[in-house]
Design a protein that fits this description.
Order of helices and strands of chain A: HHH
Number of strands of chain A: 0
Helix content of chain A: over 70%
Strand content of chain A: under 5%
Order of helices and strands of chain B: HHHHHHHHHHHHHHHHHHHHHHEE
Number of helices of chain B: 22
Structural class of chain B: mainly alpha
CATH architecture of one domain in chain B: Orthogonal Bundle
Structural class of chain A: mainly alpha
Helix content of chain B: over 70%
Radius of gyration of chain B: 24 Å
Largest sheet of chain B: 2 strands, parallel
Number of helices of chain A: 3
Distance between the termini of chain A: 14 Å
Distance between the termini of chain B: 28 Å
Oligomer: heterodimer
Strand content of chain B: under 5%
Number of strands of chain B: 2
Shape of chain A: elongated
CATH topology of one domain in chain B: Hydantoin permease
Strand order of the largest sheet of chain B: 1-2
CATH class of one domain in chain B: Mainly Alpha
Radius of gyration of chain A: 22 Å
Shape of chain B: globular
Chain lengths: 98, 570
């Protein structure tokens, strides 16, 4: 058989995908829960008041946190795939030599 | 036999880190030389022209050096592009000339604009990493329509998807070409038509000989130039400090520019003609929870469905690399947001303003070296997105339309020649469209995103993750979603109907996505034929990424790369 752990891989992949999307939705939900930023279309554009001044804004912090969480999610998914591939590769090599 | 059991070829990208370092060094030297020339009183026109043209010359030369006669390199970049490199090039194409000004200003924009945009951008790459990257790479196809055709065992699906790729890609490519050409023309003090022609020539040279390989090399260099352009105030200050060391008590980033962000942006680029103008001027999603969710969803699903971004995942070494590439891409985007946000702040520094002279930062006109640097960054971003779009379009047309319909048994050499001819024809056609300025392509930017979402997102999700999904459901979902999007846009713009759920005309793609899912899922429960091959193909996705599937004949010029042959029967 080409991949003995096919079912396990598929189950794990789906679980991983579901967990990732749920985590991502939680982040999204938190962002939405704390309220959408209000706006006044007639208000003048923001002056350039400095990056540190902007960082006191919770929305900017939210965006940065979202970025970091997303990077970690992508790397975690990739690492999981690589682990499965290397396991399968090594099991195949053992199978072919025996 | 599997790919992993073989020793891979020596990667053609092995020397890329060295090339990137040399390019960065060359940019430093060029900037220093031009700064000295500017101080010596050389005319500004010459400095701006040199800063605009020399990077373009490098991109063209790299495109020629990356020439190849191997089909796997021309269509996939060799299928061994490292994850980090894929991430950088993906980010460069993601930003493009149309979003680059937004990256410079996103922190300073009103929250109701910046927050949903950033949420949408980041979410789109998460969706790509989680949903699409691994399955797309696993099938080893060169284009999204080819993936759908192989997975669903249908040439009809492939043809329809290819047509939709063209429909989505042409306006996007025209937009990038217009933005790149206009900014280039400003740097050269030439007419916009000259700028567009020069831009398209560089674009053509950089990809026609090397295909995806040439595009990957040039996009990596363009990514470096984009970061360099954002850091240009720091670099100029550093160079000044090196040449004339001076300690001043008042030096610091404390001064505040009296002009608004819009005026600062207007000094760099004609904002009415870019997407940033669309956000700043129209602001149709201002305020409220539903506009926030709608805009974020629109960007998340729209950007995750763009064929030229998805095709980046098909050239990586493995499905694990494809997913990690999305992480690298997010890292690069974060870097670009941070250094891009610093641009206007540093521009406001007192010492830099003294250094640049009184005329450099006039409202409505930004001249000199610093303006030339940021314009080079915008042109590089537009070139990166254009090369990815041109390759996605031409590969789809040559493989999914011409080869599938006219030349199904073409040899590998014929395929390479065909691919080059198609690149040439599409580039000429799009240049003509951009040159004639007969259509409002800039207005169609967001509509294209909308159309991509409606046409591809439901079909890709269901193809990748549901074995019951079949060809009839696929093309029904694609056609219904895209037609609904177009009809909604037409109906809203003509005044026949108001906004549904608050979505403006350009965002009708979200409605198309829901319709596509509904049609695809419901039709999947109806069996139209007894052909069960798509179940077998779906089962291949349920294995770790150990195989590489292709519908090509084995590449005789590349005997160490075996490919499994899967025939698609009409």
């Amino acid at each position: 058989m080409r991949t003995p752990n096919r079912v396990a891989y598929w189950t794990k992949t789906r679980a991983l995908m579901a967990a990732t999307l749920i985590l991502w939705l939680i982040f999204f939900g938190i962002a939405v829960y704390y309220g959408a930023p209000g706006s006044d279309p007639n208000a003048p554009q923001n002056e350039l008041s400095g990056l540190l001044g902007s960082l006191s804004n919770s929305y900017v912090w939210g965006c940065l946190l979202f970025f970091v969480a997303s990077i970690l999610i992508s790397w975690f998914c990739g690492a999981q795939d690589r682990l499965d591939e290397s396991n399968t590769g090594s099991s195949q090599k053992q199978g072919s030599t025996s | 036999m599997t790919l992993s059991s073989l020793d891979p070829h020596p990667s053609q990208y092995k020397g890329l880190p060295l090339a990137l370092c040399l390019f960065t060094l060359a940019l430093f030297l060029l900037t220093g030389l031009l700064a000295v020339m500017e101080k010596a009183g050389v005319v500004v026109v010459l400095i701006e022209a040199l800063m605009a043209l020399l990077p373009l010359l490098v991109f063209a030369m790299v495109g020629i050096l990356a020439r190849t006669m191997k089909l796997s390199e021309y269509h996939w970049g060799g299928k061994n592009v490292p994850a980090g490199l894929t991430g950088v090039t993906l980010a460069a194409c993601f930003v493009g000339g149309s979003f680059f000004p937004l990256f410079l200003s996103v922190v300073f924009l009103p929250e109701y604009i910046s927050f949903p945009i950033v949420l949408g951008w980041v979410s789109s790459l998460v969706l790509c990493a989680v949903l699409f990257a691994s399955p797309l790479r696993k099938f080893g196809s060169a284009t999204v329509p080819e993936f759908l055709g192989v997975r669903l065992q249908s040439n009809l699906v492939r043809l329809i998807a290819s047509g939709l790729v063209v429909l989505v890609g042409i306006p996007l490519l025209c937009t990038e070409m217009l933005i790149g050409g206009q900014v280039l023309a400003t740097s050269l003090n030439a007419t916009s038509t000259t700028g567009i022609l020069l831009f398209s020539m560089v674009l053509l040279i950089s990809v026609v000989l090397g295909g995806i390989s040439g595009a990957v090399w040039t996009q990596a260099l363009q990514g470096v130039l984009m970061v360099f352009a954002c850091l240009s105030p720091v670099i100029l200050l550093g160079l000044d400090q090196l040449t004339s060391p001076m300690v001043s008590e008042n030096v610091g980033f404390t001064s505040v520019v009296s002009t608004s962000l819009t005026e600062q942006l207007a000094a760099i680029i004609d904002i009415e003609n870019t997407s940033i103008g669309w956000f700043l001027m129209q602001g149709p999603y201002a305020g409220g929870l539903w506009p926030l969710i709608g805009t974020a969803l629109f960007f998340a699903i729209g950007m995750a469905s763009l064929p030229h971004l998805l095709s980046k995942f098909q050239g990586t070494g493995s499905s694990a690399s494809a997913r990690r590439a999305a992480g690298y891409s997010l890292s690069f985007l974060l870097l670009l947001v941070v250094v891009g946000s610093a641009y206007f702040l540093l521009l406001a520094d007192e010492r830099l303003q003294n250094l640049l002279g009184p005329n450099a930062l006039d409202q409505g006109h930004q001249s000199g070296l610093i303006a030339a640097l940021i314009r080079s960054g915008i042109v590089a971003a537009a070139l990166a997105a254009s090369s990815a779009l041109l390759m996605a379009l031409s590969t789809s047309v040559s493989r999914d339309l011409v080869e599938a319909l006219v030349l199904p048994r073409a040899s590998l050499n014929q395929k390479i020649v065909l691919a080059r001819v198609v690149v040439l024809v599409i580039c000429a056609f799009v240049t003509y469209l951009a040159y004639s300025e007969s259509l409002l392509f800039l207005d169609m930017l967001t509509l294209s995103l909308s159309l991509a979402a409606a046409a591809f997102f439901p079909v890709l999700v269901l193809s990748c993750w549901w074995s019951r999904f079949h060809a009839t459901a696929a093309y029904s979902a694609m056609l219904s979603g895209s037609l609904a999007t177009l009809f909604y846009a037409l109906a809203v713009t003509s005044g026949s109907t108001g906004f549904w759920f608050g979505f403006p005309a350009e965002m009708g793609g979200l409605l198309g996505v829901f319709l596509g899912f509904a049609v695809g899922i419901s039709l999947s429960y109806v069996t139209f034929s007894q052909d069960e091959r798509h179940f077998y193909l779906a089962s291949l996705l349920e294995q770790p990424g150990e195989r590489d599937l292709s519908i090509d004949l084995p590449d005789t010029s590349d005997k160490d790369e075996p490919e499994e042959l899967i025939e698609i029967k009409m």
